[in-house]
Amino acid sequence: MTATGKKPKAEPAPPTTLFLFGAHGDLVKRLLMPALYNLSRDGLLGEGLRIVGVDHNAISDADFAKKLEDFIRTEAASKVKGNAEHALDPQLWAQLAKGISYVQGDFLDDGTYADIASKIADSGTGNAVFYLATAPRFFSEVVQRLGRANLLEESPGAFRRVVIEKPFGSDLATAEALNACLLKVMTEKQIYRIDHYLGKETVQNILISRFSNVLFEAFWNNHYIDHVQITAAETVGVETRGSFFENTGTLRDMVPNHLFQLLAMIAMEPPAAFGADAVRGEKAKVIGAVRPWSLEDARANSVRGQYTAGEIGGKALPGYRQEANVAPDSSTETFVALKVMIDNWRWVGVPFYLRTGKRMADSLAEIVVRFKQIPHSIFNQPTSSFQPNCLVIRLQPDEGLRMNLMAKTPGDGMRLKPAELELDFRESFKTPRMDAYERLLLDVLRGQLTLFMRGDELEAAWEWVEPILDNWEQNDSAPIPYTAGTWGPAAASALIGRDGLQWREEALPED
Ligand code: BG6
Predict the structure, then answer these.
(1) CATH classification of 198-372+454-507, choosing from 3.40.50.300, 3.90.1150.10, 2.40.160.20, 3.30.360.10?
(2) Is the pTM above the cut of 0.90?
(3) Mean pLDDT for the chain?
């Protein structure tokens, strides 16, 4: 039974000590603690979870536990399932709080790792997860020291796992160096590289749709599919992350991870099973089959933009260069559109158009699979008047699948009109969904690696991205301005328009 008296839905995670490096940071506050609390409410953590904060600030165990409680009560209340105002169930929290403690220490000081070792020794279990919720400059430093202190050596009944947040490097060389550093002290099976997109229900649903319905898979190739569009658009700007974003930009922030993961889910061959090796192996293969662009190709097949002042929902918004901690002459992109080709039997000739940006007209993430036009019309209207079939996989918001078909308009004659089949996930499944971090944290504790990126997938994605970065650097092409609240620069429409196509919202009939 859980503390709320409900029967747990599944086996709880095994007893584990979870070390949160960067314990006072935003990630712990906004995402990890609410996720852990919700998992515990759902009876999925068991009673053997110990949470140990690791950071340089001095704080007692009791005050640290109180701080985490406050995170949940205030900042994160909206993410905690149940009543937001009184989100915390005292009994449940008391149970979780029993296992909370703190190690004060510098990440670069070997003494910190000796303290971590004693925590494990005192915990009653050898299982430990080290979650690096730190600035990326500490990833290699922490991992090397964990290795030196023999904290990454596994034995029966004592797993050791490291969770790493993005960014995983800032280009191919740094991604390779990071992976090499990780693999010096542990095996690939101990590394959990988080891409929170993989924790989203609808992203997992791409695999279910493709591999549990013969209908889609039968047409999933260049004989029937004309092109694919992948959009991850946000109305938010860079908010408080100006200094991070200045050094990162949208390409690095979104493409080698989130967008390439979506591309891989759509384009991968059927894996033999839903196991980590099979799924990640197929993803790595298809990412490796993406046609490499020369610098010249990179210039022709990429668009970068930067938002200027505009308006969203009647609210006037500053341009990117006016945001806090952003240079007034910044050339960092906040939008990118790309054309990607995959050179394998299934996909050759089918363009994939990717686009993502901040301060766009709408917040949505979706994949549009546009099928080919019918070859011949038997009706008294030209084939060009038939809207080609289109499968829209909506990741957020309004998660679901939509398929448009041509249908007969009722009444006399044979007049045809596009109509839609719709599967709304929220309507169809009333069961509560799991937040991405809940799903992924539970998988870490259970040792399920399928929804985490493997090193070779990432390196292959960085390898593809590299010429785009090089082209921008060498040709010093400044981003094209676009007004906040629009769909990005006109050049993004021209990129797809060059192939006689339109982005989905451009092709939709006016209301
Ligand atoms: C993060 C990026 O990985 O993903 C952010 O760093 C971006 O810049 C975010 O806003 C988008 O995630 P979601 O889940 O809000 O679509």
Answers:
(1) 3.30.360.10
(2) yes
(3) 92
